[in-house]
Amino acid sequence: MLDVTVIEDPEAAAVSLDPIRARLLAELAGGPASATMLAGKVGLPRQKVNYHLKALERHGLVELDGERRKGNVTERMMRATAASYVISPLALAAVQPDPDRFRDQLSARWLLALGARLVRDVGSLITGATKAHQRLATYALDGEVRFASAADRAAFIQELTVGVSALIRKYDAGDAEEGRDHRIVVAVHPTLKTPPTPELDQ
């Protein structure tokens, strides 16, 4: 099971957003289960659970883990293909955000567009690397800082901009024919006091 996978197909995205199917994905992320086992957890008839599982399986969101005999019945044990899922903006390709359309370093909406592009690009890179059986070279830095004042925040951003810009100028080899372009995204935003948690309906 993958830790996280990106959903790029619009139909797969629609399937995953159904509240019942999202609940089944959450249950199966905890371990393999049959339709009968899941029926008791989500309060639905086994046949209804089977219907939803087949829809998830068609789009690669769950897969067969094995079979087990229970009396005269053979049960299919299903498992989620990932512990969590991210929907790529490619699933809404016609209306996906374009950070090049409006560039404003102090705009929260521009930051959101950058984040959406990051999900789209890295998701596509993961898909390609998986098909080619290759490792994907990436790096991420995550941290938190408490600023004493808005002035300190502005000073921090200024130093960050100068420092990263200097590194880009130092290492950018635009004429290197064998080189490969890399995108750099640095973000600063307030920390959420309580991260949002989705409510799953039965």
How would you describe this structure in keywords?
single chain; 202 residues; alpha+beta; two-stranded parallel sheet; two-stranded antiparallel ribbon; elongated
What report would you give on this structure?
α2 crosses α4 (46-58) and α3 packs across α4 (46-58). The chain has helices at residues 10-17, 19-29, 35-42, 46-58, 108-132, 150-171; strands at residues 5-7, 62-70, 73-80, 85-87. The strands form two sheets. A two-stranded parallel ribbon has the order 1-4. A two-stranded antiparallel ribbon has the order 2-3. 14% of the residues are buried. 43% of the residues lie in helices and 11% in strands. It is an alpha+beta fold. The longest helix has 25 residues, at 108-132.
**Shape annotation:** elongated
Strand order of the largest sheet: 1-4
**What is the element string, with H for helices and E for strands?**
EHHHHEEEHH
Query: If helices are DSSP runs of H or I spanning 4 or more residues, what is the number of helices?
Result: 6
Secondary-structure class: alpha+beta
Which parts are unreliable, with pLDDT below 50 for 5 consecutive residues or more? none
Mean pLDDT: 91
Strand proportion, as a percent range, falls in 5-15%
Main sheet makeup = 2 strands, parallel
What share of residues is helical?
A: 40-55%
Whole-angstrom Rg: 22 Å
* Distance between the ends: 25 Å
Strand segment count? 4
